[in-house]
Amino acid sequence: MNHEDQMALNNFGGITRLFPLPNLVFFPGTVQPLHIFEQRYRQLMDHTLEDNRLMSLILLKPGWENDYEGRPELHSMGCIGHVLAEQKLSDGRYNLLLRGLSRFRIIEEVATSFLYRSARIELIPAVEMSCLNTAMKLRQHLSSSILPRFPDGGIRDQLKELFQSELTISSLTDILTYALPIPMMIKQKILESQSIEERAALLVETFDNLDPQIDPLSKFKQFPPKFSLN
Hints:
230 residues; alpha+beta; Archaeosine Trna-guanine Transglycosylase, Chain: A, domain 4; Methane Monooxygenase Hydroxylase, Chain G, domain 1; 5-stranded mixed barrel; 7 strands; 25% strand; globular
C-alpha cells in the first residue's frame, strides 16, 4: 500500500458505508469509475464526501433480484475504497473514481437512520511473498497462461506492461482478476483467498479451462473496465 492509500485509511473508524453491486468485485490497488443515481446512494455519496471520502464496494449474493430495494444478502468480504475525484451533476447524480485500499470482512451490519446500509468491518492487511524466486515463478506462470489468449497489440501490450512492471505479485494478481473477463464468483473467491499462491493458481486455472467455443476474451475490448452503474 502506498503512502496516500495509508493516509486515507488513517481516517477510518471501523464502520463503513456499503455500496452493494450485483456485477462487480472490487480489489485493492484498482480504480473503478462509478455512476451513482439511486437516491439511497446519492445520500451515501453526500455523507462520504462530508466525512472521510471512504466507502466500500461489496458483491450481492445470487438471488438479489428478489429483494434489491430492501436488504439482499451480501458476501462477507469486499473492498474499501477512497474517492479520488467526483462530479456532482445538477440533478444530484454523481460520477466518481474510487480507488481500492484494502480487503475487509464484515463483522456485523449496523442499524442507522440512513437510506443506505452500513457495517462494522475488519480490515484485512495485504500479504506479500517473502521469497523472490517464488514470486518470479508465479509471475511467469501467470504471463504464460494469460498473454497467449490475446492477439498482438492493444490489450496484450497493456498486459505485457503490467507483467514487466514493478508491481508485487499480490497487486498484479488483484489487478488482473479485477480487470479481466472471468466469472464473477471466481473473482469473489480470489478476493476472499488469503494465499497469494492460491489466488494466482485460481487465475491460471480459470484461463486454462476457458472453453474456446464460448471464450469471453474474443469480445473483450475494454481495459480497464468501463463505468459501473448502481
